[in-house]
Amino acid sequence: MSAAAPSTDVAAGEAGWSLNPGVTRREVWAWAMYDFANSGYSTVIITTVFSAYFVGVVGGAAPWATLAWTSALSLSYFCLMLTMPTLGARADARAGKRRLLYSSTLGHVGFMLLLIWAGPGDVWLALVGVACSNYFYCIGESVIGAFLPELARPHALGRVSGWGWSFGYCGGMLSLGLSLVVVLVSQSHGLQAPRYVPWVVMVTAAVFVLAALPSFLMLRERSTPRNLPLQSLWRDMRDMLARLARLWRETGVDYPQYRRLLMCCACYQAGISVVITLAAVYAQQVMGFGMAQTMIMVFTVNIAAAAGAFAFGYAQDRIGHKRALAITLCGWIAMVLTAYAAVTVPVFWAAAFLAGLCMGTSQSAGRAMVGVFAPAGRLAEFFALWTFAVQLAAVVGPLTYGLVTWITHGNQRLAILITGLFFVGGLALLARVRMPRPA
Q: pLDDT tens digit string along 121-159?
């Protein structure tokens, strides 16, 4: 696709009308390709394959294996919560979003490949690999979101965000589909998990690297450096908690609606993190799914998520970001009730399909709303605060689910029902958010 001038893009139709002056459709495609790249990691490594492999093979199905897995992820999210606001401020001050994106990608792929050597009993190797790879993955996810307001016009943030999310789920489906082929072929030859899971990791890493290349080659850095002494940023790096406190106080004074949005995001994202982290566990433990059946289910969820993010991105620009997010949160509540009541496979599949639709739409709507509130010149910093809220949710949500399951001696149906309270709380908090009037 040729890189036409802005006026030509506008004349060409909707893409030009949605993009800022100087932004080409090719560059938006390159931006979306990073979502395409990183979705494979969360789909294959975190949600479907390696989580079960760690608990069943690396940890030998020991009682502490699940706790070790969730603790490693929680540690990575906690470290990200402490460091991402400062990294975002540094990227803004030095016009370094591209550099931060490159370095986070290198770190992510390097530590993901470390998982290749994690066999039975290699607990610490696997935990270090997953914790560090997930940390760098989340940095990249935050930074790529900070490019959104530079690419899309204010009235089109929803649809352009939806393009990225929907394209991203296609990447997750590609990695999961290739991984499913590896699993089925390996099992047909009598190979066990320690033989084929390393190949699954390599396939996922290869897709990530190849799909991320367009972002490195075509995505432009449009922010300008600010005259901020480098040593002050390094001092902030050594005092991360103090910086987080200052940023939180600043949102309360100067950006109160953005603070309310962050609280809303933290609440409903806690529920989403449960679905992402524990969907396969619920399918196997409650519904009796096998590995192949679980992978097919997750593949179907990704199809629904891609369709939902793409189609609903247009709808939210017409009906408003707040109303769109409210509709998706109602959908999440319906999904939880359906999953709780499901005793047959078709009903559970209906809940899974609904979860996919809601996942794509709610994540796209949330990112677009952050883009509405984020001030120019501080995009990476404000998107880092959003990442902080999302990662806080990623710690709280699964831990709450695990505690309920432990207290109730394995009652995962009750745990998923209580998860619905996160979506109810998010809906209540969303009602208090006042969106700014269009310029």
A: 999 999 999 999 999 999 998 888 878 878 888 777 777
The structure's pTM equals 0.74
24: region left, alpha or beta (phi > 0 left; psi from -120 to 50 alpha): beta
- Cα of first residue to Cα of last residue in the chain, in angstroms, is 32
Paired with 152 in beta bridges are: 19
Q: What is the Cα–Cα distance from 73 to 370, expressed in whole angstroms?
A: 25
Phi, psi at 100, each rounded to 5°: -65, -35
Evaluate if residue 4 carries a pLDDT over 50: no
3-state secondary structure the chain: CCCCCHHHHHHHCHHHHHECCCCCHHHHHHHHHHHHHHHHHHHHHHHHHHHHHHHHHHCCCCCCHHHHHHHHHHHHHHHHHHHHHHHHHHHHHCCCHHHHHHHHHHHHHHHHHHHHHCCCCCHHHHHHHHHHHHHHHHHHHHHHHHCHHHHECHHHHHHHHHHHHHHHHHHHHHHHHHHHHHHHHHHHCCCCHHHHHHHHHHHHHHHHHHHHHHHHHHCCCCCCCCCCCHHHHHHHHHCHHHHHHHHHHHHHHHCHHHHHHHHHHHHHHHHHHHHHHHHHHHHHHCCCCCHHHHHHHHHHHHHHHHHHHHHHHHHHHHHCHHHHHHHHHHHHHHHHHHHHHCCCHHHHHHHHHHHHHHHHHHHHHHHHHHHHHCCCCCHHHHHHHHHHHHHHHHHHHHHHHHHHHHHCCCCHHHHHHHHHHHHHHHHHHHCCCCCCCCC
Measure the CA–CA gap between 369 and 263, rounded to whole angstroms.
13
pLDDT in tens, 309-331: 667 766 777 788 788 889 989 99
Mean pLDDT, rounded, of the chain: 81
Q: What is the pLDDT of residues 392-434, one digit of tens each?
A: 888 888 888 877 877 877 787 898 899 999 999 999 999 998 8
8 Å CB contact between 339 and 282: yes
Domains of the chain: 25-218+246-430 (1.20.1250.20)
